[in-house]
TrEMBL record:
ATP binds at residues 32, 36, 77, 82, 97-98, 169, 339. InterPro entries: HATPase_C_sf, HATPase_dom, HSP90_C, Hsp90_fam, Hsp90_N, Ribosomal_Su5_D2-typ_SF. Belongs to the heat shock protein 90 family. SUPFAM superfamilies: ATPase domain of HSP90 chaperone/DNA topoisomerase II/histidine kinase, HSP90 C-terminal domain, Ribosomal protein S5 domain 2-like. Keywords: ATP-binding, Chaperone, Cytoplasm, Nucleotide-binding, Stress response. This is Chaperone protein HtpG. It comes from the Bacteria. GO terms for molecular function: ATP binding; ATP hydrolysis activity; ATP-dependent protein folding chaperone; unfolded protein binding. It comes from Mucilaginibacter celer. Residues 25-179 form the Histidine kinase/HSP90-like ATPase domain. The keyword Endoplasmic reticulum does not apply. The keyword ATP-binding applies.
Length: 627
């Protein structure tokens, strides 16, 4: 039999299109051809299990080989094979997926998904790297004749008698000059490792040397000899294909090491497993995050029926979940399509919300099962949970029950617990709950101490996400606001009706204000006399909470440049009830008055790290003279 014909497509030049536009990464030709070979072996297995094939199955396997001299790469399998008629149907008619018909036939098969054509034009991706492609094949069907097909990348092909004597298919690519890099052991091994590492059928690529025990030597110690064994590049049953009940913690940890050899152990993991309304399996790991979540080198890997597709999962998992590591495998995620299409795809949307829910459920479960262990991990997961809450409302809804806040005593509370704790003492005269926080416990120590003295609790909010988390809490919590502990003097942080009485007359107040204004002599500092508790510091310097936040946001590029450009403005709060103020008023020598007020002011600056340079030097000199 010898026949010539044209590949039935509508445009004459589909090959140049395939070469240029369809696949940006030409290395995936190997993924496509190996997947086809794997599919072919799966199909024969399926036919045997349905009783429609009664011959020997043999050891089902796929083999990849290359010949640098002949410039060929060969992919062979002992799968289902093809008759000449099937070649015409499945190979010649581009875009007609043979899997469609196969599907019709075996609709009732349980794992029908397994055989849906994977990537549409898969086979033709060979022409991205080859000038000529040959197929030698022998169908499993009784009495089938071996068939041969060759095509040089034009729309002309030749079909004829083949030479195979065993069931299966052998595809040979004659690699073109631009793609010579693929004719290397190292390069092919690398591509196979990337895409084929977890395929369900053993993939052989050459041989490797292994040392095996071979009897004992004179001293009774085991002897070793080297033998050549098949180099099988894949693990056929990766853990995500197994049921969680079969797996131990070590299995999950080993697999993590296999995926990311140089990483610290993860904190915990989630085994994903759904088959309705979409099909998805996978294992997601929670890494130790620390504070450098911008820098995440281990990405989630996306597979489709054990074939690696990509580690750009941006449109499939919500952004905050990209902090996780691990694998997701779903035949339902459309592949080789544009990003915008992915975003609009309803399966992708459902998958994304499913994963979000699973992650939230897992965290809730950990929290419930062992609060102590959960708290120990909080430094690592806290960042992730807060990030999730500010970016995903659905997640926030669930996470509000297990998100923790931590105070300066390092005690952790849920939001409800915290409310109960501070409600009595931290509700202001307008019935508004005020949560106090510090973003820098060392620097704001004097403020924290003053607040604690009043029985207030102070939360530590010092991670990069906390600015956003604070706004989030204010939006979500009823009648609650958050104030940084240095936003005001302790007496005024939470306005109550029980303000201490003023001891100064209005006239004295004005006089004190003048003395301080003169002594400080800086326009950015606005002096204000307040009647505070006598044991509060004589002078405190604060920046208004609102102004500070606006400036913080401007600094982070939040588009508040108006505030960013405003000069820093501070409030200098002089405690009119402090005995030092009284002493200044009594003092008759104006120079001493000025010196005392300057000293009190500098001390306030000092406690906040605002006293620097010449001012600091002057302060030290003055202090020495005062002793
Ligand atoms: P898809 O895999 O999506 O069906 P391909 O272009 O990759 O599309 O392959 C087209 C068809 O060619 C396959 O569906 C299958 O019927 C047939 N085919 C390709 N490679 C093999 C093979 N190694 N063994 C048997 N049939 C094959
Ligand atoms: Mg294919």
């Amino acid at each position: 039999m010898q026949e010539k014909g044209s590949i039935s497509i509508h445009t004459e030049n589909i090959f140049p299109i395939i070469k240029k536009f369809l696949y940006s990464d030409n290395e995936i030709f190997l993924r496509e051809l190996v997947s086809n070979a794997v599919d072919a072996t799966q199909k024969i297995k399926r036919l045997a299990s349905l009783g429609q094939y009664s011959g020997e199955l043999g050891d089902l396997r796929v083999e990849v080989a290359f010949d640098a001299d002949k410039k060929t790469i060969t992919i062979s399998d002992n799968g289902i094979g093809m008759t000449a008629e099937e070649i015409k149907k499945y190979i010649n008619q581009i875009a007609f997926s043979g899997a469609t018909e196969f599907m019709e036939k075996f609709k009732e098969a349980k794992d029908a998904n397994e055989i849906i054509g994977r990537f549409g034009l898969g086979f033709y991706s060979a022409f991205m790297v080859a000038d000529k492609v040959e197929i030698q094949t022998l169908s499993y069907q009784e009495g089938a004749e071996p068939a041969f097909w060759v095509c040089d990348g034009s729309t002309e092909f030749e079909i004829g008698d083949g030479i195979l004597e065993e069931r299966g298919t052998e595809i040979t690519l004659f690699i073109n000059d631009e793609s010579a890099e693929f004719l290397s052991q190292y390069k092919l091994q690398e591509i196979l490792d990337k895409y084929c590492k977890f395929l369900p059928v053993p993939i052989k690529f050459g041989t490797k040397t292994e040392s095996v025990e071979d009897g004992v030597d004179e001293e009774g110690k085991p002897k070793y000899t080297s033998v050549e064994v098949d180099n099988i590049i894949n693990t056929t049953n990766p853990i995500w294909t197994k049921s969680p009940s079969e797996l131990k913690d070590e299995d999950y940890l080993d697999f993590y090491k296999q995926l990311y050899p140089f990483s610290e152990d993860p904190l915990f993991w989630i085994h994903l497993n759904v088959d309705y309304p979409f099909n998805l399996t996978g294992v997601l790991y929670f890494p130790k995050l620390k504070n450098d979540f911008e820098f995440q080198k281990n990405k989630i890997k996306l597979f489709s029926r054990q074939v690696f597709i990509t580690d750009e999962v941006k449109d499939i998992v919500p952004e905050f979940l990209m902090l996780l590591h691990g694998v997701i495998d779903s035949p339902d995620i459309p592949l080789n399509v544009s990003r915008s299409f992915l975003q609009a795809d309803s399966n992708v949307k459902r998958i994304s919300s499913y994963i979000t829910k699973k992650v939230a459920d897992k965290l809730a479960e950990l929290f419930k099962a062992d609060r102590k262990a959960y708290e120990e991990k909080w430094t690592d997961i806290g960042l992730f949970v807060k990030y999730g809450m500010v970016s995903e409302d659905k997640f926030a809804e669930k996470a509000k029950d297990f998100v923790l806040v931590t105070n300066t005593e390092k005690e952790n509370f849920t939001l409800n617990e915290y409310k109960d704790k501070v409600e009595a003492n931290q509700t202001d005269k307008d019935n508004q709950l005020v949560y106090l926080y510090t973003n820098n416990p060392a620097k704001q120590d004097s403020f924290i101490q003053s607040a604690t003295k009043k029985g207030y609790d102070v939360l530590v909010m010092d991670s990069p996400i906390d600015n956003h988390f604070i706004s989030h809490l204010e939006q979500k919590l009823e009648k609650t606001s958050l104030k940084r502990v240095d936003a005001d003097v302790a007496d005024k942080l939470i306005r109550k009706d029980d303000a201490p009485e003023t001891v100064l007359t209005e006239e004295q107040s004005t006089k004190v204000k003048d003395i301080f204004n003169k002594a400080i002599n800086k326009p950015a500092y606005n002096v204000q006399i307040e009647s505070l508790n006598p044991d509060e510091l004589p002078v405190t310097i604060t920046m208004d909470e609102f102004m500070r936040r606006m400036k913080d946001m401007a600094a982070m590029g939040g588009g508040m440049s108006f505030y960013g450009n405003m000069p820093d403005n501070y409030k200098v709060i002089v405690n009119g009830n402090h005995k030092l103020v009284n002493r200044i008023l009594q003092e008759e020598d104006e120079a001493v008055q000025a010196q005392l007020s300057k000293q009190a002011f500098d001390l306030a600056l000092l406690s906040q790290g605002l006293l620097t340079g010449a001012d600091l030097t002057e302060f030290v000199k003055r202090s020495v003279s005062l002793i």
